[in-house]
Design brief:
The chain contains no helices and eleven strands. It is mostly beta strands and 120 residues long. Strands 2, 4, 5, 6, 9, 10 and 11 form a seven-stranded mixed beta sheet that branches. The protein starts with a strand and ends with a strand.
């Protein structure tokens, strides 16, 4: 069993910053790639950023230059530093991870989501 718990969401004015965290716990041998997704009301869930176990990153065009994804492998934790926030960044943000469990099986896990609201 693997659990992902996000934290750090909230209400911020446009131009402000927030830092999201995603902590993984449970039966974990190692974590491969980790991802941040978001879903705005009435829209499909979209991939925001990803990071490999080695630290290679990718970003959606809409957040490039504003968001920074990082991870601390020792703590099984991933972060998303969000700067220069815009109202269109308002969404529920979810973390997702490919986790290698002790039995040698790779599972994909989701967090419960954290709300980010950016006011204009």
């Amino acid at each position: 069993q693997v659990q992902l718990v996000e934290s750090g969401g909230g209400l911020v004015q446009a131009g402000g910053s927030l830092r999201l965290s995603c902590a993984a716990s449970g039966t974990i041998f190692s974590i491969n790639a980790m991802y941040w997704y978001r879903q705005a009301p009435g829209k499909q869930r979209e991939l925001v950023a990803s990071i490999t176990s080695g630290g290679s990153t990718n970003y959606a065009e809409s957040v490039k230059g504003r968001f920074i994804i990082s991870r601390d492998n020792a703590k099984n934790t991933m972060y998303l530093q969000m700067n220069s926030l815009k109202p269109e960044d308002t969404a529920v943000y979810y973390c997702n991870a490919d986790v290698l469990v002790v039995a040698g099986i790779l599972v994909n896990a989701w967090g419960q989501g954290t709300q980010v609201t950016v006011s204009s």
